Amino acid sequence: MNAQFLNELTELLGKENMKTTQAQLLAYSYDATANFQALPDVVVSPRHTEDVVAIVKLCDRYEVPIVPRGSGTNLAAGTCPTQGGLVMLFNHMNQILELDADNLTLTVQPGVITQTIHEYVESKGLFYPPDPSSMKISTIGGNVNENSGGLRGLKYGVTKDYVLGLTVVLPSGEVLTCGGKLAKDVAGYDLKAMLVGSEGTLGIITEIVLKLIPKPVAQKTAIAHFDSLDAAAETVSQIIAAKIIPATLEFLDNGTIQAVEEFMHLGLPLDLQAFLLMEQDGEEAQVERDVAQMIEIAKENGAIFTAVAESEAEAMKLKTGRRVALSALARKRPTTILEDATVPRSELATMVRAIEQIARDYRVQISTFGHAGDGNLHPTCLTDVRDAEEMERVEQAFEAIFDASLKLGGTLTGEHGVGEMKSPYLAWRLGEEGMFVMRAIKQSIDPKNIMNPNKIFAKSQKLRVVIHHGE
Amino acid sequence: MVNNAELMQKAFEKTVDEDLLLDCMRCGFCLPACPTYIHTNAEEAHSPRGRIALMKAVRDGKVVWDASIEESFNMCLGCRACEPACPAGVQYGPLIEQTRHAIQLGKTRKPLEKAVRGATFDGLFANQKAMTGAVNLVRFYQKSGLQKVTRKIGFLNLFPPFMKEMEGVLPEPAKKSLPALPQLPKKQIHVSFFSGCLMDTLFLETNRKTIALLEMLGAKVTIPKQQQCCGALHGHSGEMDKAKRNARANLDVFTDDSVDYIVNNAGGCGAFLAEYDHHLAHDPVYEKRAKTFTEKQIDVSSLLVKLGLPEFLQTLQPTARKKITYQDSCHLRNVNGVSEEPRQILKSMTGFEYEELVGANTCCGSAGIYNILQPEMADAILETKMQHVQDINPDIVVTANPGCLMQMQKGIQATCSHHGDQTATHIADLVFDYIVENTSV
Hints:
heterodimer; A: alpha+beta; Uridine Diphospho-n-acetylenolpyruvylglucosamine Reductase, domain 3; Alpha-Beta Plaits; seven-stranded antiparallel sheet; five-stranded antiparallel sheet; 15 helices; 19% strand; B: alpha/beta; Fumarate Reductase Iron-sulfur Protein, Chain B, domain 2; 4 domains; four-stranded parallel sheet; 52% helix
């Protein structure tokens, strides 16, 4: 690292806002993605937008890569500093700035923990729905940069549906403000829509205006067991066809059920082919009606067991299986790789079967759980990074899964982002035209490529080999 | 000269289990549970995930051992709150113990620190007689009114730093005899009592009250002689060989297989005792006995609940009403998984109004001898803890471990200007005194 750059940076920020020891650099060399690790040159904690402007201008001058990082829970290596450079933290920019009850908006700094937002607005009778699994520790800045989803995606949408306005420091150091406390705004391109999910490749988000909604008064939880995958998938389709949009509609496959049973001893039959968790929220009477109808539909489709929680404690119990799914799987092997291929809801059963076939073809261990309601699946591969030969097969299996998902009209990633991990496959999804438009945007805004380089845009794209599986 | 960093890497390779390291999938779910991460405003190097990454990097030779890495490991409280928070079942406790052991092995230590460590871990905590002597000497100074003077001249430098730090909050000397408790019907249950080194010296009265409660509820209690410190303080400081020496010595005296349980009343000891099987897993002589010993471990609250204490307490009709709260012992909660039983006991005493302490499940900063080694962090953690305590302003803060008890007393002293009557007490003392007050024998 250029010593002159570090000197100037120290002058700007002061040592107390910088991390440079070996332990600190190592501690910011990774995120939650298996097999990605690289040391940054320096880690900084700006205290306000002006600091960010100064840092960005300095990095622009010295062409030093900038990686904005929340809590490092990214699953696609989006916050791993693979090109070295500067990691920017928002632990000092972690304030809730304003709750506007008239406009139902919340203005926050990027470092606020997602769950803190939930707790804060819910204490005021309001609701911020996006609930990524990492919400206890993820930051809202990270959520916005990744356009994070969550369990409530089907009914309430994802992060982008709740971002009304953004303040962004562009790679040039200029400050862009877009959107605002507006329900309607069609003045020009929707720049905030472009920035949400841009994974830190276009600028540094320093302030966010979020949309809030009234908090639902009632909530109810139910589960259903199936001895056939198709019966579960048919249940999901019919629930939607019956004009019910549940708050959550979650699914575990047989492999996940076996792992959960092994771990928690809940009494789940080991040959169970599918487990559905259904939740509805809203007005009490409607919640009752919807849950009763969902159970009815499950039974009509041959559910071999159903249960409805009558209390908060019972609900927690019913949710155990889904809650521990990842834990139960993760315990089985040293390395866990969690993907998020997403297909149209109607293709759920086909996709799960395709994943099973791919796992057999490549002799790897993959189980699937996820958000059945919105087709967002989490094929979870259990492996061991120390076994190079197996890791190769794992990579091939994931390529095959991406391919299968795209063939069914799906996408590479529903909620984790492209990062560096999936960047070689992005063209498969976007086509050359899509890549061209995205590259044009990136190059015009960040010509020196200092903003989270190598994320989303890979040096080279993987060739898509058309693979035939099973049928 | 042999390279220090190389020695350290070898020590890590030898001592820190690679499979345990690989269990960590770096999801970050442990971060909000970690007191040092929270109190450093989200410093990843002071988080469990960061420390595991550092352990692996040192072991793999990816970083060169330096003071910043050592600081990261030293800063860990060892409270193990990260373990219940971990979705992948990472065994952080064994990992940090192995790491500290590796640091001991890989380090060329300064002579003074060596001498202090030797005196503390080889002398006092290894030997129950020496401990009793040391405590008696402290008592002499307490009683003779020289306490204030000793603070100035640093007399207690000769004693384990633990007691020196806690000099101001040492409990009253034990009374000669305890008041009698009612006698409930005898039960067919026989337990051995683990007295613990601090509990058996500084907190002798608490031990006697614990035994009296068990006997009141109809249990037969025996106290094996020649018990040693459980070894936790050694193990947590990287002196694993000395910890194992103590473990073996205890296994040599807890030999009565007819007992139903081996009961302890100190959360910190209980957690370590419950892991004897793990520590002696490859010991040809002690492996099997350690397993039996571990299986019989129980903490006093859980046993009192099994013996029907809550039902008995509900029959009492007290007049006065005080507000109480409970501070978890991290090890009792995070390692032994016991959090409901103490609360159940406290809530069954109608003479007390129980209010849950916000953050009761997080460390108070005591953490063995951590408050001596990392006073700044320990004080910051205690300050947060006391804010939560004073928010609900209880009359009594109840604890289940001597370290937590003294730390809470220290916290109360520091924040007590408006709360003169506030006290901290061990759950066994509270229950015993409550029964005495509210029954006529």
